[in-house]
Here is the input.
Amino acid sequence: MKASRQTFSLERLLTKIWMGKGWLACLLWPLSLVWGALGAIRRRLYQTGFFKSKRVPALVIVVGNVVAGGSGKTPIVITLLKHLQARGLKAGVISRGYGRTGKACLEVKLNSPTCDVGDEPALIHRSTLAPVFVAARRIEAAQQLLLMHPEIQIIVCDDGLQHLELHRDVEICAFDDRGVGNGWQIPAGPLREPWPRPADFVVHTGKHPAFQGFYGQRTLASFALRADGTQIAMAQLIKQPRRPLLAVAAIAKPEAFFDMLREQGLKLDETLALPDHYDFNSWSSNKYGSYNLICTEKDAVKLWQHHPEALAVPLVFTLEPGLLTALDSLIDRLLPKISSPRLSSYYGHTTT
Here is the structure.
């Protein structure tokens, strides 16, 4: 728990540093040049064919970011999957499974321990029931997904914009309210690679977009979920006599979740912000024995293993209709060509 807290504090410090060009960012700037040079060399080796991007017989959509840290990729993935399913298209998901303990290629099941598959893949599968595979190498996850589910037409890759080993057909780059921060690369700034860079679609998940792109809107559902899948209306939680309420969040921006709960009318007696992807194995609620627990749906897939009485409030994420229309058009154009050889380079996309 202490190590997690230290990591959490370091992440917050870096976020603060990366939003400006203060003395500490300037001190780290020479190291960012090394990072940038290594990244440029790697991209060039893929562009020239020295390293090969591997294709799979499915259309691959990568949802990623160029900024370190969470930027709302997983809600985009879930929303896209539900949209594709509504169209009658067969879609699956691949992920590295950040935060899991092993590196084996695994299919995510409803009863899969999050320590084996990761919290976000578990949430994606629970929310969509789409086939989800995790592996250290995304190409391995994609190949195994198609082997086990040959009906899949579209693979959505959760993160992996910089994972060039897997050929991609569509790139979606997500940004939150941080934008590109100070515009410098790691470790002086938040950028994993230079921006701007080509991408098919840019999606802003925050309230204050820094530049042009499509928009996604976050709201909370009007109900909370129990571990058994039953629902309780938020209005009921507000009105009924209750025990003190503790809101727990182990996500990139826990305060945003707390604010959204308050906007729903909930009175939060205590809030507890934990590091993103926190596993809850070492967390004890003894201190809060008299409290009711409320958390995000992402945290619930782990918290319910220890505290099945906790309530989870799902995030409702809505993508701009114009994005879905443009994406549908691109999919309809590309999907029939997937089985035939096509040539494209990593930077062969057009920025929308």
